[in-house]
Design a protein that fits this description.
This protein folds into 2 domains: 33 residues; 46 residues. It is 64% helix and 10% strand. It is built from 4 helices and 2 strands. It has a two-stranded antiparallel ribbon with strand order 1-2. Helix 2 runs antiparallel to helix 4.
Amino acid sequence: MARSDFKYKVVDGEQVALSEAEIDSCVADEDAWAAKTSERTIKKTILNLEAEITQRRLREAILGTDSDWLKNKEAEITSERSKL
C-alpha cells in the first residue's frame, strides 16, 4: 500500500490522524507481508500435495500397484521445499 493509504485510526470512536512513526510502521508491516507472499504460496502448494497422499495411495504404493505415483509425488514435494 502507498503511504497515502494510511491516514487515520479510530480511538474511542473518533477518527485520529496517524503520526509519521505510525505510518512508517504500517508501511513496514505491509511490505513485510508482501515480501512473504511467495513463501506462503509455496507452503500452500506443499500442503495441497501432501493432502493428495491418501490411505488408498499409500496402500497402492505398498502393494506396488501405484506406478511410482507416490515416489513422483514425494519428488514434487521435495522440489517445492527446496524453494523455501
